[in-house]
Each structure stands twice: as C-alpha cells, then as structure tokens.
Backbone:
C-alpha cells in the first residue's frame, strides 16, 4: 500500500464514525468504492456524498479494494468480520474496545485506527485535531496505518489493544458520562424555569481547569467538602426524580471518599 | 449604601469563595476592614492580602461596616448568623442552596450574591465573567446588591431562593460530578500507563458540543447505543474497582433509559 497514490476504499458501516472517516478519506483524495450498510437507505445516504456505490449485502463487496474500514456497532463487528468474503487489501476497524484479534482471526493484514473523539454526524469537526490510535498485526501493517493516519490527523499514536480498551473506557467517563451530567443539568434548569444556557460559564471553567490542574485538585462542591446538609437539600429537590437521587448519592459518596483518601495521601507525603 | 463611595466590608469566611470576593472587592476600591475565620491562621493569610484585620472571634466584629459577607461552609451558616452581633450594614451570603431567610431571621437588611462558578483559591479567574445571582429581602436591598454586583461582573441576574437552589443543584451535576468523571478518567489513564493528557481533545470537544447542541442530542457512546457487549467489557476492565463499576452501571442505565425515552418522544412529535 503506497499512501501517495489514492487508495480504493470500502467503508463497512454508515454511522457517526463511518461518516467522518468516509468524508476525510474522500477529501484526502482517496477513492471510496463502496459503502456497505445492512440498511440500504443508510448506505445510499452516505455513498451519495462521495459518489460511491451503496451496497447492503456482503456478497457484492468489491474484493479489489486496498482498504476495508469496519466502522460498525461493536457488537456487530465479530459476526460481520466472520461473514466477510476473502479479499486482498487491509482490514481495519475503528473500535476502542475491540481487540485487533477479531480481524486477524479472519484476515492476514489487519489493524485498528481508533479515533479518540466524540463524533456526531451532524457536527463538523476538524479531523486533523482528532487523536488516532493505531495498531497493526505486523510492524509493516502498523507502519502503513501510521502513514495513512498521518495524512488525516496531526495526532497519531501507537498503542496495544488493552491500552486502547482502557482509553475507550476512560472516554466513557470523560465524555459520555460528562455529557449526561450536562443533560441532567439542562433538565433541571427547564424544570425550574431558568434560562437553558445558565451553566455555560461554569462548564467552560470546569473544562479550562482540567487543562491546568489535576481533576482531583480541581474538585469543589458539597461532596468534596463533606457538606451533608447541602447534599440533603439537593436530594430533597430531587424528590420527584428517584433515579437522579441514586446518581447523586452514588457520585457524592465516591467524591467524598476520593477526597478523603487523597487528603490522607498528601498528609503522608 | 452608595456604591460610588468605597464600602467598609467585613468578610466572614476564608475559603475559596471568600478569597475571590475579598480580592475583587479590594480591587474595586472597597475597604476590607476585617476577615473573620474560626481558624486564626486562615483569617490572617487572607487578611494580609488586603491589609485587613484578621479576627477569629465574633465578639470583635467591627459593627460599623457597610457590608458583611458571609462566605462559609453552608452547614456553618445558620449557627454563625445566629451568633452574629447586631450591626447596621447589609448582611449578604454567597451560598447557592441556602434561603435568604437564614439572614432575614436575624437582620433587617439582608441578601444573597451567589456566584455560579467553580472557584479555587489557587486559580485566578476573570471575575467580570462570573454570573452573579442576586436576591434581596426588599426591592431596595435588591437594587443595592445589583448595583454592587454590577461593579464586579458583567453577568448579574435576580432570582429567588428556590431557583437559586435549583441552579446550585444543576451546578453539582454540570461541574462537580463532571470534574469527578475527569478524575476517574485520569486514574484509569495512569493505571494503564497512558499519557495523562490523552483525553484533552475529547473533553474540549464534549464542552464545545454543549455550546452548540442540546446535551441529549450530543450523547454518544455504548450506553446511548444500548451496546451491552461493550458495556460488559468496560465493567470487566473495572473488576478491581467495584465502586467505579457501580457508577458505570448506574450512569449507563440512566443514559440508555433517557435516550430510549427521548427517541420515543421524538417519534411522537
């Protein structure tokens, strides 16, 4: 594979991640031959963007592509890799939590390009700032994938499958759970007739702090202070939301414990 | 109270919020007469910054101040307000979750200036961008406090005690819990020997998304997709952290339910 000549690429999947990769490969001058999705409409929608062929059956996969990018739901990946016809070219998946083995079991030249970023179809992102974590089944494959990834992003790293799984897990905390906290906050603002954007400066500063200090040092709020009275008031305000009460209690206890342990550690240093 | 002539101010408290208010009052040309803290060292440390008198007993409070700013732990506020000697001047607290009544019960002219921001002593912040939520026990007091707050910040709002409590609660979700998610992610990166700053682009984009779309629409990740297999893998990676498993399960279930309900709502629209 020579990354200086355009590659023939087959995209397997049509979700958020597949969409961003398809666009960025296309922009980089590569040729999107096919877009596969079980759902023919989804395949067509994405294929049209890049003048690719939309397919919804594995049996019509173009076997002459240089690269097959598997970008589908994690739980569909094992069975789809098993159904995949023999091809030459590289097989690459984009999943954080899935080992490279799922591909190497079926194909000789395999790898992973994992974008550590939250990608929504509807939101444009400067892909050159998206960190890409690479794994290849051989040193040769790894080198090829690093070269390809470096065309797309300024931040290309190599890591193994276990480290990638840990990255994916920490991303669930730092992004998915964080975003859900924003969602809960928005629901509360609406319930109490407060402007939807009231928390923007607070959220901006919470993120800005993260860039400058360790999160454990940046922790503020009633749980960090062990202020039970305020926590009880908050729980009372959540009376009509038993699920949010559970979340509030679980996280407050964890924060209190973490801060107590951390303060102990610091005293012993 | 004429906000054009410098005020004599007594600061009651020496924590993060008291520190920021002391500095900003001082910079605005007001006169910090005293800083009270039960802990004499803490009082001294903050008083020195503004050439104020440090006191650690309520009985030596200067009764001639124009403004007494109560900025102490929420659970200490009721008893301290009760112990406070009679004074003229305005009594103001800065607590999100505490009703104005805690002051009006003991003093005629009372109010609240609640800064909706995460303030750490060690981190400078441009106070003119901190949203200040005002309440006064009379229209007159409210007007005075709005004028004073407007000297310090460009974002001054009036809200009642219940709305302020809801703001404070939503801030716990959007800031304190969010920051704890960052802390967990940092712990995981360390455990798996990954660079501490790996998640910075992800966290930046999660926040950037918040400024442009509703959090419920921005939600990504295995829980949002209902991808049980990935969630099980994450739980397995957390085997040695039963508390983090509980948090992971609680939040994932909440996200899955929220996304299912939201999709149903959208279909019926």
Residues:
């Amino acid at each position: 594979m020579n990354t200086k000549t355009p590659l023939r690429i087959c995209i397997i999947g049509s979700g958020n991640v597949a969409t961003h990769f398809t666009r960025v490969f296309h922009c980089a001058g590569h040729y999107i031959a096919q877009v596969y999705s079980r759902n023919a409409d989804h395949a067509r929608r994405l294929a049209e963007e890049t003048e690719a062929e939309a397919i919804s059956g594995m049996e019509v996969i173009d076997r002459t592509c240089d690269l097959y990018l598997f970008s589908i739901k994690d739980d569909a990946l094992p069975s789809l890799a098993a159904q995949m016809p023999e091809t030459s070219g590289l097989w690459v998946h984009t999943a954080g939590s899935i080992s490279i083995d799922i591909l190497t079991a079926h194909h000789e030249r395999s790898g992973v390009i994992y974008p550590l970023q939250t990608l929504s179809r509807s939101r444009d992102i400067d892909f050159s700032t998206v960190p890409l974590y690479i794994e290849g089944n051989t040193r040769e494959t790894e080198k090829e994938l690093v070269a390809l990834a470096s065309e797309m992003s300024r931040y290309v790293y190599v890591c193994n499958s276990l480290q990638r799984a840990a990255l994916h897990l920490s991303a669930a905390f730092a992004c998915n759970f964080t975003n859900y906290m924003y969602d809960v906050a928005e629901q509360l603002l609406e319930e109490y007739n407060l402007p939807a954007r009231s928390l923007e400066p607070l959220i901006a500063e919470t993120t800005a702090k993260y860039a400058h200090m360790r999160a454990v040092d940046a922790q503020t709020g009633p749980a960090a202070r062990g202020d039970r009275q305020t926590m009880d008031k908050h729980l009372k305000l959540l009376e009509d939301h038993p699920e949010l009460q559970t979340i509030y209690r679980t996280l407050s206890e964890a924060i209190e414990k973490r801060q107590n342990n951390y303060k102990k550690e610091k005293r012993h240093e």
Q: What stands out?
A: Chain A has two domains: 8-159, 165-268.
